[in-house]
Amino acid sequence: MTLSPLARDLRLKAERALTSARELQDHDPDGSVNRSYYAMFDIARAALLSAGVREDELPRTHSGLIVSKHVVRS
Prior knowledge:
The chain is an all-alpha fold.
């Protein structure tokens, strides 16, 4: 599967955040959780793009992502 440029950028951003989270886990657990959360946020946005959501419909906030019904339905 070929990722869109934005999906690829979000995936790379998520990977960097996870690397930071691992580096912080022993001496800054709160920072590690923060970086992990942003990794989840960015990879979820990349997944929505890969599932066919248009860039202009992509949730831009954490709450928007949570209530997004593009992939998961109640």
